[in-house]
Amino acid sequence: MSVGTQPDPSQVSVPGLEALTTVGSPKSQRIPALDFTKGTLVLLMVLYHWINYFIDPQWKYLFYLRFVTPSFIFISGFMVSHVYLSKYGAADPRLWKRLMTRGLKLMTVFLVLNIVRIAVGAFVGHGVALQNLISLQNLSAVFVSGDYPVAGVKLVSFGILVPISYLLMLLGALMFPYRLNLHTFHITFAVLLTFIAILALAGIQNYILEFVAVGMLGVLTGFLPIRVIDGFGRHPYWLAFAYLLYLIGITMWGVPFLFQIVAVLLNLGVIYLVGASGSRSGIVRTEIIVIGKYSLFAYISQIAILQILSPMLHHTNLGFAVFPISFLAAFTLTILSVELLDCTRIRFGSVDRLYKAVFA
What we know:
By secondary structure, the protein is an all-alpha fold.
């Protein structure tokens, strides 16, 4: 089955994927290589955010990691078509309600986390003041363009939640026309690309629009059977050659939007290939898979950890040692936070119910 041909949306069925949407269910049958991919992205994002907090958000080599954020959004779209549609079918009203509810939850989590961040910043005497955030220009930057650095300080944190929220709510709304036209997602992707191109001609870059488009590409990719995706692993030399060309390209021209799409597809392909071909019982692989099951929580956790570590370690006299110490601390604490959550969910039903209420 190609990306361009989908089955009847009300009849989509992929055996063994139905339980993917609930982490920790005793009956869940997940795709380990996909969880490995998400877990690897989480750990790469620790590096990405650590560079922002401890080196320089404008560091000239940071663009080599620019694929990490859109990759999460791509996977969010992939999960909708590859998992949710398989579980419910487009005609099932539970699907659009689930997508809308999850999108609204993520937006609520984004708002609550940033309100807490602003409150804590005001209490300790640093951070972005609320009155500086609530302006038409800044609100537009946060919720419309996604371009919100001001004097080197980001107005908000956890920004990836905004385009994922938009994507999920958009997909929920598109389930209605999708019942009548199987090319609804293709048309929407083409419309998004058209708007991005028009804005580019006008010299405007809208990050949120680009992220939503990458998520829509993830939806289209999700219609591929998993055996087709696994088949790319049978051509590692071609994949390596393409990756070499990609590295040369971004080194010479940076990461414009089209390169960003290539970056997402190639890097996810490489990571997924490693996850699919690795030892099934390796300790490292098993740990990465656990992190992948809690990728959203791990994303939130690592930013909170880095925001605590940054002022704490920057006011010490560690010198150059602050770099390895801060990175190892962020890396280790992120893993420990996931392990703690996983253990407490098993032991305490209240923690499990709270986790599902927020993240499921």
